[in-house]
Design a protein that fits this description.
Elements lengths: L1 H19 L5 H21 L21 H10 L5 H14 L3 H14 L4 H14 L6 H13 L4 H13 L3 H14 L5 H23 L2
């Protein structure tokens, strides 16, 4: 209601100023009043007079969504040192601040100089998934596939691409990537235990889907 009061008050003041101070001719007074009414109509159509007139601040990006555990796992499976690792650290720093677009752009810049670096492609895939709030976009898929094509035997591309596929609901594709990786991992390693548990859950879910089909 307050919005309407302010809008009508401003319209009245404007019209009064035109009549008293502007001394507009009688012939254009109706046109001026019509213009003000059109402005009020536009406010009623596009505006929201019921909203409280309090200022709002955008929520500060504080990096609360950054997955430190996942980043540490990537560092354990992929390259920890060298040029690629330095770019990844810079990208992670931006992601911690909530600057997911900038985090992805940093890796794109690095790939211009090192287009055959599987770690950078993997990092780009992860960065694009983070920027899409967990969505596996075509760009992220392309980045993961490039990493996998460059380093087909490396554990990191298979692990993280499989993880993104599983989160996107593509369970069979995730299983196909994880099964060979789990078979090659040391028997007592945490990665193998995790992958075997994930594969078991996928198998149970796929079996349930099969049973539910007519």
């Amino acid at each position: 209601m307050t919005g309407w009061i302010i809008a009508f008050a401003l319209a009245g003041l404007t019209l009064g100023g035109l009549l008293l101070l502007g001394r507009i001719p009688r012939s254009v007074r109706e046109v001026s009043a019509a213009a003000l009414l059109l402005g009020l109509a536009g406010y009623a159509w596009q505006g929201n007079p019921g909203l409280v007139g309090a200022p709002r601040k955008a929520a500060a990006a504080d990096g609360q969504d950054f997955d430190e555990e996942l980043a540490e796992k990537r560092r354990g499976l992929a390259e920890r040192f060298g040029p690629a690792a330095q770019w990844m650290m810079l990208s992670d720093g931006l992601a911690r601040q909530g600057k997911t677009k900038e985090a992805a752009n940093v890796l794109l810049s690095a790939l211009r100089d090192r287009p055959d670096d599987a770690n950078l492609w993997l990092g780009l895939g992860n960065a694009l998934v983070a920027h899409g709030d967990g969505m596996l976009s075509p760009g992220a898929q392309f980045a993961y596939r490039r990493a996998l094509a460059i380093d087909p035997d490396g554990p990191a591309p298979r692990y993280f691409y499989g993880l993104a596929l599983a989160q996107a609901g593509q369970l069979q594709a995730a299983r196909d990537l994880w099964a060979p990786l789990a078979a090659r991992a040391p028997a007592d390693s945490d990665v193998r235990k995790e992958l075997e548990a994930n594969i078991a859950r996928i198998d149970a879910m796929l079996a349930g889907e099969t049973i539910r089909r007519p």
